[in-house]
Amino acid sequence: TPHLGFTFDHRHPGPGLKVARVPDGAPGWFPKTRIQEGEYVMAIDGRPVSADERLYEWINDKQDREFEFLVGATASTNGARIVKYKVLSQDDWVDLEYRNRIDRRRDLVNTSSQGRLGYLHIQGMLAPNQAKFEREVYDDMIGREGMIIDVRFNTGGNISDTLIDWLERRVHGYMRPRDGLVETSPALAWDKKVVVLMNEHSFSNGEMFPYAMRARHLGTLVGMPTPGYVIWTWELRLVDGTGARMPMTGFYRLDGSTQENQGEVPDVRVPLPPDDWLQDRDPQLQKAIELLLSGRKTP
């Protein structure tokens, strides 16, 4: 099912769709195809619409083609205008919402700390996430006094140990090129304070990372306990041609406890209630900022 690029105000019974929100970067966000929040979409491709199941039955057949919207300031076709654009896929919409949310978090950290703190979200623990980490984290570290590394909603993978190796680097000297800026030796070293954000949706290698950060005394953990989904499984074929996956390797902490079904517990427990999430409030991030700015000792 294609996504129209805006959300609905479901309090409006019809006729038409009342636009609740048009995210930055959505097709209806740009000047030539602008659809304002609070406006009404009265028809799509000449067909009157309302927010019911028939809408999705119809637009599903159209897939990702260009749509023509009849848009007005009121729930009426009088004075309405035509707006045309190619709609998004569901994956496009999810990615757009993710990028906008991370940008808002980064801006909040920068504004609240007056530029003293940096922020990075790690979405997963795979090779592209590692490349993104290396590209962004060291750029954001420059001139900062502390860093917030966010692994909430991390889907897991296998790069946790590599990230820990990088974050354990300590400065043992400096280099200064002629007419250039001072550089640390080794390059990409970090010796500032770190807070790691985690939650109930940090999975697998995304749980091993906060554990390792605490075990190596590299940072303080803030958020909610992780679920304990830490296990390696291997695929095998059955005699009837079907497949199955079998647990083959577990991960154990230095004290002998397993991380399977025993998630990592934060140093500072802060919930994120659904209402805060829907209102774009982030008490977990606020607590991380508070800890780093307070000068309170972190591991």
Descriptive report:
- By secondary structure, the protein is of the alpha/beta class.
- The protein folds into 2 domains: 7-88, Pdz3 Domain (Roll); 92-293, Alpha-Beta Complex (2-enoyl-CoA Hydratase, Chain A, domain 1), CATH 3.90.226.
- The protein contains 7 helices and 15 strands.
- It has helices at residues 53-62, 90-112, 127-141, 160-167, 205-215, 274-278, 283-294; strands spanning 7-8, 17-21, 40-44, 47-48, 66-72, 81-86, 117-121, 146-150, 173-175, 183-185, 193-198, 220-223, 232-237, 243-249, 268-269.
- Strands 1, 2, 3, 4, 5 and 6 form a 6-stranded antiparallel sheet that branches. It has a 5-stranded parallel sheet with strand order 7-8-11-12-15, sandwiched between helices.
- Helix 4 (160-167) runs parallel beside helix 5 (205-215).
- It is globular and about 70 Å long.
Summarize the SSE layout with pairings.
Blueprint (H helix, E strand, L loop, with lengths): L6 E2 L8 E5 L18 E5 L2 E2 L4 H10 L3 E7 L8 E6 L3 H23 L4 E5 L5 H15 L4 E5 L9 H8 L5 E3 L7 E3 L7 E6 L6 H11 L4 E4 L8 E6 L5 E7 L18 E2 L4 H5 L4 H12 L5
Parallel strand pairs: 7-8, 8-11, 11-12, 12-15
Antiparallel strand pairs: 1-2, 2-3, 3-4, 3-5, 5-6, 9-10, 13-14
Helix pairs in contact: 4-5
Short characterization:
With 299 residues, the protein is α/β, with parallel strands linked by helices. The chain has helices at residues 53-62, 90-112, 127-141, 160-167, 205-215, 274-278, 283-294; strands at residues 7-8, 17-21, 40-44, 47-48, 66-72, 81-86, 117-121, 146-150, 173-175, 183-185, 193-198, 220-223, 232-237, 243-249, 268-269. Strands 1, 2, 3, 4, 5 and 6 form a 6-stranded antiparallel β-sheet that branches. It has a 5-stranded parallel β-sheet with strand order 7-8-11-12-15, with helices on both faces. Strands 9-10 form a two-stranded antiparallel ribbon.
